[in-house]
Amino acid sequence: CLKLPILWIRAFFKRIFTNKIYWLTVLAAFFLLLCSIIYTDDLTGEKYTFISLFYNEEIQEAVKYGRISMHNILLGYDRGYLWMFCPIIVGIPCVMTKKNERFVLFRMSKNKYIYTKYFSNLVAGGVILLIAYLLYMSVCMILVKENIWNMNLLRKLLSVFLWGVINTIPGIILSEFIENKWLILCIPFVVNYFMHIFAGQIIPYQIWKYISPYNYQIMFLNNGKMIISGIVISVCIVIMGAVFRKIMLERRCDCGQ
C-alpha cells in the first residue's frame, strides 16, 4: 500500500530537482544571502555587504583580524533581503507542481495523495534555503580561509530548513483554490512583509518572541524553552496547514483537479 506513494514521491522530487527553475531559485536565494550586510561603519554609516569581501581590502582585513566575526554573522538573523523574498522563493515548487494529476487520484487514495504532495512540497521548499545556506557558508569559509564548521552551524542549517518549511505552507494552501500563479507567490510575500514590519509593533513582546518570523531563522540556536515552544508551534502550523488543505480539496467537486 506504500509502494505507489513512494513512487510518486520519487517522481515528484525527480521532476523538481531536474528542473532548471528550481536551481535558479536556489541561486536567487544564494545571491540574496551574498547581499547581506556584514558591517556598518560607525563614523560614516556606510554599510558593506558580503560581496565586499571579494574586493574591499579594508573589509578583508577587518575579517582577518577579528573585527568582523563571520561565524557570528552566519549564526545570526538574515541581514539582507532573503527574509523579504523567502515566501516567493520557497513557493516556487508549489507553482511548479500545480498541474493536473487526476491519474494519481485513480491509483492511490485521496488522503495519500493530499498528504504526500503536501509534505513533499514542504521538503522541497525547505531544501531550497538549506542548499543556499550551504553554498553561502562554503563561500564564506573559502574567503575567510578557516574551517568554521561546528555544531552551532548545523543547528543553524536545521533552523533554516524549518524556516523554509513554514514559509512554504501558505503557497501550498493558496494553490488549491487560486489559479493565478502570481497571486500564489505574492499574497504570502505581502503577509510576510506585514509580519516582519508591523506585527511586532502590535503584538506584545512576550507573545511575539515565540511567533516572530525572525525566530525561525535561529530556532535551534535558542535556549531549551524557546526551542520546545518553537517546535510545538511549528508542528501545530504544519498540522493546521495539512488539515486546511484536506478540507479545501474535499470541497472541490472534482477532487481538487
- Tell me, rounded to a whole number, the average pLDDT: 83
Q: What is the number of helices?
A: 12
Measured distance between first and last alpha carbons: 23 Å
Structural class: mainly alpha
Biggest sheet overview = 2 strands, antiparallel
Q: State which percent range the strand residues make up.
A: under 5%
Pick out the low-confidence regions.
Answer: 253-257
- Gyration radius from CA atoms, angstroms: 20 Å
Q: Give the overall silhouette.
A: globular
List SSEs in N-to-C order.
Answer: HHEEHHHHHHHHHH
How many runs of DSSP E, i.e. beta strands?
2
The strand order across the widest sheet is 1-2
The share of residues in helices is: over 70%
Give the SSE layout.
Layout: H1 3-17, H2 20-34, E1 37-40, E2 47-49, H3 57-64, H4 70-75, H5 82-96, H6 102-107, H7 110-144, H8 151-174, H9 181-202, H10 205-211, H11 213-217, H12 224-251
Antiparallel strand pairs: 1-2
Task: Write structural notes for this entry.
There is one protein chain. Helices cover 72% and strands 3% of the residues. Strands 1-2 form a two-stranded antiparallel ribbon. The longest helix is centred in the middle third of the chain and has 35 residues, at 110-144. Helix 5 (82-96) crosses helix 7. It has 257 residues and is an all-alpha fold. Mean pLDDT is 83; it is low at 253-257. It contains twelve helices and two strands, in the order ααββαααααααααα.
